């Protein structure tokens, strides 16, 4: 079982969760986009997001929790300041999505097996390999022959010049630039082999 660790300001984490009993979370194309809309509403104000991938029955995000100043919420009642709980915001995301899916598809019961699991990312090597692992996940699970064709990940957004909430320039800098990012993804299967056992022992 995944050991619960606190989400601390300024630290990097791999966040993940899956459907209850591996149930499908995203039945239609617009379900994926709705989940990301809720993520932007509930989570992105308090985190920096570097990579993500949504798969039919599970999701991955690589984030950094913002510093305390960005997490402080001014009380409208008095002058006290409190820190926003990112864990609670993640819960709001899952609850809002589950409520909509249950209503839309006339289902009842728990949609997600558990709240977001998390593992701290503590090195540059872990960071780059985790980005690759997250993007490669659809191919890893035999959902598609080439992960680059999966439409519900951040792989192409990192390479694009279009507006994004992702920390695009920082991701590219970690890899040493755009071409190095592409080359790492195109030919670094060893990166997956070295990190997959660490990730998957508790994840899915």
UniProtKB/TrEMBL annotation:
Residues 8-137 form the Transposase IS200-like domain. InterPro entries: Transposase_17, Transposase_17_sf. SMART domains: Y1_Tnp (SM01321). It comes from the Bacteria. This is Transposase. It comes from Pontibacter ruber. The lineage of its organism: Bacteria, Pseudomonadati, Bacteroidota, Cytophagia, Cytophagales.
């Amino acid at each position: 079982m995944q050991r619960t660790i606190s989400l601390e300001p300024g630290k990097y984490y791999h966040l993940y969760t899956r459907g209850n009993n591996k149930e499908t979370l995203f039945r239609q194309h617009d379900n994926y986009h709705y989940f990301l809309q809720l993520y932007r509403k509930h989570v992105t104000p308090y985190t920096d997001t570097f990579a993500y991938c949504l798969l039919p029955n599970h999701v991955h995000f690589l984030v950094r929790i913002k510093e305390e100043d960005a997490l402080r919420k001014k009380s409208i009642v008095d002058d006290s300041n409190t820190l926003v709980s990112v864990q609670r915001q993640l819960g709001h995301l899952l609850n809002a999505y589950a409520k909509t899916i249950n209503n839309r598809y006339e289902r009842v019961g728990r949609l997600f097996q558990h709240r977001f699991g998390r593992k701290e990312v503590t090195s540059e090597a872990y960071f780059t390999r985790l980005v690759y692992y997250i993007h490669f996940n659809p191919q890893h699970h035999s959902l598609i022959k080439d992960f680059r064709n999966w439409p519900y990940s951040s792989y192409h957004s990192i390479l694009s010049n279009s507006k994004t909430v992702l920390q695009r320039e920082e991701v590219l800098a970690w890899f040493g630039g755009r071409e190095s990012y592409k080359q790492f993804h195109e030919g670094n299967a060893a990166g997956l082999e070295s990190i997959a056992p660490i990730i998957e022992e508790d994840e899915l």
